Amino acid sequence: MKASLSKGKQKNTSIPPIHSHGKKSSQIRNDKRTLQKSLKTANDNDFPRGSDIVMHEIYSSDDEVIYTFGNNTIMDNEGDDDTSLDEMNYTVLSEEDIHQRQEEDISKVSSVLLISTFEASILLCHYNWSISNLHDAWFADEEKVRTAVGLLEKPVIQYPNANILTCGICFDNYMGHQMHAAACGHLFCSSCWNGYISTSVNDGPGCLMLRCPDPSCGAAVGQEMINVLVSDEAKEKYARYLLRSYVEASRKSKWCPAPGCGHAVEFVLGSGSYDVSCKCTHRFCWNCTEEVHRPVGCDIVAKWILKNTAESENLTWILANSKPCPKCKRPIEKTSGCMHMTCTPPCRFQFCWLCLGNWSDHGNETGGFYACNRYEIARMEGEYDETEKRREMAKRSLKRYTHYYQRWAANERSRVKAMKDLQEMQNVHIKKLSMDYSQSELQLKFITDAWLQIIECRRVLKWTYAYGYYLPEHEETKMQFFEYLQGEAESGLERLHQCVEKDLKPLIEGNTQDHFNELRNKLSVLTTVTRNFFENLVRALENGLADVDTMDVCSKSGLSGNSKATVGMKMKKSGWGKGTTSRTSVVGQTHHGQQQQQRSWSCERCTYFNQESPTICQIC
After folding, report:
1. Known EC number(s) (predicted)?
2. How far apart are CA 393 and CA 387, in angstroms?
C-alpha cells in the first residue's frame, strides 16, 4: 500500500464536504500528521487491495483541510456539518404531551361554544377531534348536532321528590343518594351503573360513545360520571381509550408500534422520507408502521412479509417436491429408494413414482419392475410436459426465494447481534476505555458511531435482498448492476465490522496504548467511507438503478452474463461510487495501472475485484 502526501487543487470530490471552520493551523497539522501516520501503518485489510491510496492535503482560504483517498474526498469536520441530512420532519409526543393538547382543544371548544368541558369532550370525540369540522356543524345546526351526540339542554323526566327510589334496571328500592342519572334524568342504582359502564369499557373504545341505559333514551354519559361510578381499573381504561382516540383520529399522528411504548409520532405530511425514530429508540416507517425499510417501498415490504408467512410457500414446496397419489390424491414425498411407492393407510395404493401408473401393470413389457420406460415414452409424446413444467417452475421459484430469504434473515440476525454488541460496548467497555486511555466518553464516540453504522448497514443490506427478489429477472443489466453494488456493499461492511470486532479487541485489553490514535483514525475513515457508499446505494435503488440507462452498459461494452467486473468499471468511470474507496483507479493513474485494471476479475462468490492474483480471490 502506498501513501503519499501532495498539495494541489481539489479533484474528483465525491463525498459531500465536511468543513472544519475555526480550527487552528497547528491543530490542523497535528490532525494531518496523525492521519498520515495511521495510513502508513495500516494493514492490507484496511482498504481494498490492488489499489493505490493517494492522500492529498488541500488548504482553502479559511484553513480547512481536506483529506482525499484516491478519487474520494473526506474533509475533516469539527464545526458545521454540510452533509445531506434530512431535516426533522416529525415530532415525538409523550402521553403527557398528548393529554395536554387534548385538554387545550377541549378548553378551546368549551370557551368558543359556551358549553361545559364534558359536552366539549363528547362533541370532539364524535367529530374525530377536528375543531373546524365541529364548528362548521355546530354553527350550521346546533340542535341537530346536540341530538346526534346526545347532549340534552334539559332533562327528559323530573327527579321524583321521594326518599326511597326504585332502580329502573334491578327494580330494587334505594335511598336517593344511591341513585344516579345522566342529563336525561333516568335514575339507576350505583351497582347497575357500575356493571353497565364496566361492561362497556371492557368491550373496547365504543365506551367513548356511551348512552343512557334506558332503551328509549340517547343521552350521553361522560367521563365525569364514569369516574364517580366505576373502579380505578375501569377509569384508567376509559382514560386510555380517550387518549388514544385523539391520536388515532388524526391523519398526522400515529402510535409507535414498539411493544410497551406509549409515544406517538406527529408527521409533517408530504415532507419526504417516512423514516422516523421514537424516543424508545425504535425506528419505523410512519407510512406503514413496519420497521424502517429503505431502499424498498412499503408495497414491496408488505408483499415480502406476506410471502414469508403465507401458506402459498408451503403449497409451492409441496408442488415442487411431491407427487399426488393417483388414487387418494394425497401428496407424497420421495426421499430415497426405488420407484415402487405405497401410499399410507387406509389407501395403501401401490404405484410407480415415474409414471404414476398401477404397480401391478409393470413388468418386462415396461422395461422391468424397477426400470419403467412408460415415463420416457409418455414424456416424448408430450403427455407429462405440462405437469413437469409446473413442477420445475415451482422448484426454481422455491430455490430463488430460499436464496434471498436466507440472506435476508442472516443480515437480520447479524443486525440483532450488533445491537447487543453495541449495548455491551456502551455499558461496559466504553467506561473501561475512558479510564485506560484518559479519554472522555465523548472522545470515544467514534466507536459507538461505527457500531451504529454497522447496525444501519445491516438493515439496509437486509432489505436489498427483498429488492433483488422483486427485481424483474428479464432486466439482466439491472440485475448485474444490482448484484455488483450489493457485493461491494457487503465487502465494505465486512471490513468495517472486522475492524470494530477484531482490531478494537487489543485496545479493550489495554495492549495498544501507542496505537490508539491510529486505530481511531482508521475506524473513523472506514465508518465514513461505508456510510457514504450505503447512502449512495440507497439512493440508487430508490431511483430504480437509473444509472444503468445512463451508463448504457450493455450496448457499449458488449456485457456478457457473468461480466460483473465490466459493470464495476463502468460504474466507477461514471462517477457513481461517491464516498467509496476506489479499487480500480486513483488520481494520476498510469498506463500500467490502466492495463492492470483491464486484467482485473470479479470473484463469483463475493464479487470482489482481484488484481494481484489471477486465480485466487484476495477476500475469500
Report:
1. 2.3.2.31
2. 10
Q: Residues, the chain, total? A: 620
Instruction: Using alpha carbons, select from 487, 412, 415, 488 the residue that is nearest to residue 452.
Output: 415
Evaluate if residue 289 carries a pLDDT over 60: yes
Average pLDDT over residues 6-26: 39
Residue among 241, 281, 298 at smallest CA distance from 98: 241
Which residues partner with 341 through β-bridges? 351
- pLDDT at 6 exceeding the cut of 60: no
For the stretch 583-616, pLDDT in tens is: 333 333 334 444 444 456 666 655 556 665 666 6
C-alpha cell at 555: 450496448
Report yes or no: 183 and 252 within 8 Å, Cβ to Cβ.
no
CA–CA distance, 42 with 3 (Å, rounded to integer)? 10
Decide if 468 contacts 486 (C-beta within 8 A).
yes
Q: How do residues 366-378 score in pLDDT, each as one tens digit?
A: 555 555 665 566 6
In degrees to the nearest 10, what's the CA dihedral of 500, 504, 505, 511?
170
Q: Name residue 488's amino acid.
A: E
DSSP string, 538-557: HHHHHTTSTHHHHHTHHHHH
At 59, is the secondary structure helix, strand, or coil?
strand
The model's pTM is 0.63
In this structure, what DSSP letter does residue 20 have?
-
With a CB cutoff of 8 Å and minimum separation 6, the contacts of 452 are: 422
Which residues are known catalytic residues? 338
Per-residue burial over 603-614, b if 16 or more Cβ lie within 10 Å, else e, is beebbbbbbeee
Task: Provide mean pLDDT across the span 467-496.
Answer: 91
Give the C-alpha separation, 375 to 379, whole Å: 6
Structure-block grid coordinates of residue 144: 341537530
Residue percentage of the chain with pLDDT more than 90: 35
Rg (CA), the chain: 35
Long-range contacts of 104-109 (CB under 8 A, 24+ apart): 105/129, 105/131, 109/134
Whole-number Å distance between alpha carbons of 115 and 220: 14
C-alpha 28/C-alpha 65 separation (Å) is: 7
Domains detected in the chain: 5-75 (no CATH), 91-248 (3.30.40.10), 312-383 (no CATH), 425-610 (no CATH)
DSSP assignment of 566-614 equals HHHHHHHHTT--TTS--SS--TT--HHHHHHHHT-EE-TTT--EE-S-S
